[in-house]
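Per-record layout

source: Rhodanobacter humi
name: Transporter
length: 262
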Amino acid sequence: MRSRRNGHRHRYIPAALAALFALALTHAARADDNPGYDRPGLGFTPLVLRAGDVIWEQGLPDWNRSRDAGVASAQYTTDSLLRVGLGGPLELQLGSSWNRLHQSGAGTDLRNDGRGDSTLGVKFALPASGAFSWGLLGSVEFTDGARGFRNPQRQYLLGADFNWQWNPRNATALYLQDVRAGGRDSLLLALNEGYALTHTLNVYAEAALLRDATTGHGSMAGAGVAWQATPRVQLDASARHRLSGHADEWQAGLGVAVYFGR
């Protein structure tokens, strides 16, 4: 299991997840075929679910803070992702979110909340070849969110994740991402180093270079932890901080992921 996942997709979870989470906590069977989770961090696990298996991944919430022209923005996002195995090398992903935004400073004091845009994605990943594995993720983000949280046009994401499992405890991953919207591209390159402290507790550090189509270049670095509370439930925490250029001052999150396999 690799301990870093996509850090910016927006999703919303219904209250029914609480009952599903309780069911997973009390499930006695081992989940040996769990391929891993896409939370936390940047990127995704380059493995797909078996046909019919399901994983729900949920921010509790995720948070980011930025500043522009003297105005500070803090946004809280209950970021939700449903992953469904399609069979073979393919996995379907569905997502949305619920957001709360607070902007203050320079004579501004605004609060807003609402649902974010919906996403539809497909992951492709072949079985690992020795210590090396890789995967591709393509998705579209629609413009169906609440006013103030929807994008002005559809966004198309293409991501590639490459993983090297050096030994049972240590893994390195490289993530490349291109988000295209309105004929313009925003790029991200992230490097991740993960380490298993125990069979159930993983930590990681990551660094990322950004090139946003609107704001320009920037860089960030951060770290996180993922704990396998049960064979079917993972809890996570992570944080990133801007190093240079145009990027969020801070990004952080708490989350849970639940595996509903056979």
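summary: Confidence is low (pLDDT under 50) at residues 1-30. The first strand starts at residue 54 and ends at 68.
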